[in-house]
Structure formats: structure tokens, C-alpha cells
Design goal:
With about 375 residues, the protein is of the alpha+beta class. Helix content is about 25%, strand content about 25%. The chain contains ten helices and 14 strands. The chain starts with 13 loop residues before the first strand and ends in a 6-residue tail after the last helix.
């Protein structure tokens, strides 16, 4: 659930706004009047939602948004400020408005300090989740000298988001298949795309050319550099291995130190069905590389193929929350029963991957 609370839009400090009783086009228009351009938007479950930059640097508007101006009679707004001050690592803020009035507001850093017309609007739910009241304190903090409460910080935050989302029956932007509107277009079939973060475009293109894989197209956007290769012209396994190697020790000195680069490799080629490829936990072969791979430190941290439940045969659980929420893996997979063609081509999974990492669309 908290996957959309952190790093969904790399390089942006965003607010997520849910509106009930207000059409999506009115929400978008209202945000624009407040000088906040939506980065993504959608509708699901009776809610319209939009994601926008918390501040407007272009016009030096650094004031908090007054959402009362877009909350007319009959409207409810639920707002998450995901990173009120990322430089100081402050936790998110939450607001609930109804009929143009602030009903409840609190910081995730101190849920006990709640303000608004009714500070107890969610108290029953917060108490049931153990987030306030006598059971809210971490018992180990006073009894275990080696305990660090930050170790369960994100679990606590996840419980808080779930309590709020459960009460209001919020959808899960921007990852759920019912909600998402494409921010980036699909990748051309029979293409390998390597995205790199922490590496500028000229250097990325140069190292691939040195490896014998000159880029077909290349670009730079949203904090990522990327290069593409035509699958018909090059061995996919070689391109994928290069995407992994450039994050490792072989390039540390050249790139300015260890751990500076991470890559995401995507292949819009068929998943491996070769007999010898099935001998691996995640099927692959020289002709059919993994369709998704995330690399850091010279290692493949997570990889799998997409569509037709292939995501269950994977290495790494980096995207497990999003895959569970979308009903792609796990016990709650009724979408496959409701629609036999659900995610057959892996498009839902590819959207999840692109949204998780904030990947731009390669041209």
C-alpha cells in the first residue's frame, strides 16, 4: 500500500489527492487553478485522484496548498503529503476535508497530535490498528537495548496508510490496474530497453557501444538515462548482462565509486519456453533473456518474466506488494477467473514496473 507513498515519482515531492463527490475533470481544473499541474490522475471506486508536486518551483510558490478552495459542498477530499520536507526526512502528512472544511489533519510522525474540526474522526480505526492508545508504544523500546524502532518504521507507516485507506475505501494509485492512466506509452515489441539511474546518457551509450551493442535509440528523462536495442539484431542475453555489469565493480572507478548506478532492463520479446530454459527457476536462455531485471552492485536483485502468472516464478520480492495489490500473484487472484485474458501479455505488470521505478517512455 505504501508503494505509492515513496519514490513513485523520482525527483518530485508529491501530494496525492482523492476526491469523492467531485468529477475528475473538476479536480484537475481545480488543482490547475491552485497552480499545481497533475503528474498523474485517474478514477476508481467512487474516487477521483490526482498526484501533483507539493510546491511550484517555476513560479516560486512554496506555500502549502489550501484544498478548501476545491472542496465545495458535498465533496470529500483525502490528501497525503508524501514528503513534506524530504531534505529533513520528515514523515508524510494526512488531511481530510469535507464541504470545504478541514475535519482532520495529522503528521505520520506524531499521530497522537491530531487537529481539525473533529480530531477523533478516525480515532476508532487508529486505536484498532494499535496506532494510538496504550498499545501504540513499542514495548521493545524500553526492554531491549539493541532494539531500533526505525527497523519497523515502514511497517508502522504501512499500517497507518491501510487504516486510512480501509476506512475511506481508497483505491491505490498509481499502480492498480483499475486506476492507472498511462503516463508513459508502451515499449515497441521486440525491443530491449536498459534504463540507468546515476549515469548520464553519453556514458551509458558509450559503455554499451564499447560492449558491441550500439544503441538504436537513446534518451534521458525523469532522472533516468536509457538506450534501446532491436531484439532481431543482437543477442538478448549479452545486452542484459551488460545492463547488470555496469552497476558492478568493473565500472566503479570509472563511474566515481561503488553503488552509484542502478539499472532496469526490460525486454518486449517472448518469454523463454525453450526446453533447456525451463531448467531454471525463472526460465531464460541466450535467445530469451528475462523480461524484467533490476540490478545494483553488479548483481541481479530482482528478475522475472511477465504475463500468464509467470510473475510467480521470480527472484526477489521488490515488487511483491504491487503484484499482490493488483491480483497478479497470491491468493486473491480472482481477476484471472473473471477475465481469462487478464494480464496475458504482461501489460499490467509492465505498468507496475514502470510506475514503481518512475520510468519514462523510450522513443
Amino acid at each position: 500500500m505504501t508503494s505509492w507513498m515513496h519514490d513513485s515519482f523520482p525527483g518530485h515531492e508529491v501530494n496525492i489527492v482523492f476526491a469523492r463527490g467531485l468529477p475528475l475533470d473538476a479536480l484537475i481544473a481545480g488543482l490547475r487553478e491552485l497552480r499545481r499541474e497533475p503528474l498523474a490522475h485517474g478514477e476508481a471506486g467512487g474516487w477521483a485522484w490526482a498526484v501533483h508536486d507539493m510546491l511550484n518551483d517555476e513560479i516560486e510558490d512554496y506555500d502549502n496548498v489550501d484544498y478548501r478552495h476545491i472542496c465545495p459542498q458535498g465533496t470529500e477530499l483525502v490528501v497525503f503529503e508524501t514528503e513534506p520536507c524530504s531534505a529533513k526526512a520528515h514523515g508524510p502528512n494526512f488531511e481530510y476535508l469535507r464541504d470545504g472544511r478541514l475535519i482532520l489533519r495529522f503528521s505520520f510522525e506524531d499521530v497522537g497530535q491530531r487537529v481539525g474540526e473533529n480530531p477523533d474522526h478516525l480515532s476508532a480505526e487508529l486505536l484498532a490498528a494499535g496506532l494510538i492508545g496504550p498499545d501504540a508504544q513499542c514495548a521493545a523500546a524500553d526492554t531491549d537495548d539493541g532494539h531500533d524502532c526505525f527497523d519497523h518504521h515502514y511497517d508502522d507507516e504501512d499500517r497507518l496508510v491501510r487504516a486510512i485507506a480501509g476506512f475511506f475505501a481508497l483505491p491505490s494509485p498509481p499502480l492498480s490496474r483499475e486506476v492507472v492512466r498511462e503516463v508513459s506509452g508502451p515499449i515497441t515489441p521486440a525491443t530491449f530497453v536498459t534504463y540507468a539511474r546515476g549515469l548520464d546518457l553519453p556514458t551509458l551509450a558509450e559503455v554499451f557501444a564499447e560492449a558491441g551493442y550500439p544503441a538504436r535509440t537513446k534518451g534521458e528523462s525523469a532522472g533516468w538515462s536509457w538506450v534501446t536495442h532491436a531484439a532481431a539484431d543482437l543477442p538478448g542475453q549479452g545486452v542484459a548482462e551488460t545492463a547488470s555489469r555496469i552497476t558492478g565493480f568493473r565500472y566503479e572507478e570509472r563511474f566515481g565509486g561503488p553503488g552509484r548506478v542502478e539499472t532496469v532492463f526490460l525486454a518486449t520479446t517472448p518469454a523463454c519456453e525453450c526446453p533447456h530454459g525451463q531448467n531454471y527457476m525463472v526460465p531464460h536462455c541466450p535467445e530469451h533473456p528475462f523480461q524484467f531485471m533490476h540490478c545494483r552492485g553488479g548483481f541481479e536483485k530482482s528478475y522475472f518474466n511477465v504475463g500468464r502468472r509467470r510473475e510467480s516464478r521470480r527472484h526477489g520480492d521488490l515488487l511483491i506488494r504491487e503484484l499482490l495489490d493488483a491480483g497478479i500473484v497470491g491468493r486473491q487472484t480472482s481477476a484471472y477467473d473473471d477475465d481469462p485474458g487478464f494480464n496475458a501479455d504482461g501489460a499490467v505488470t509492465m505498468r507496475i514496473i514502470k510506475d514503481h521505478f518512475g520510468l519514462p517512455a523510450p522513443s
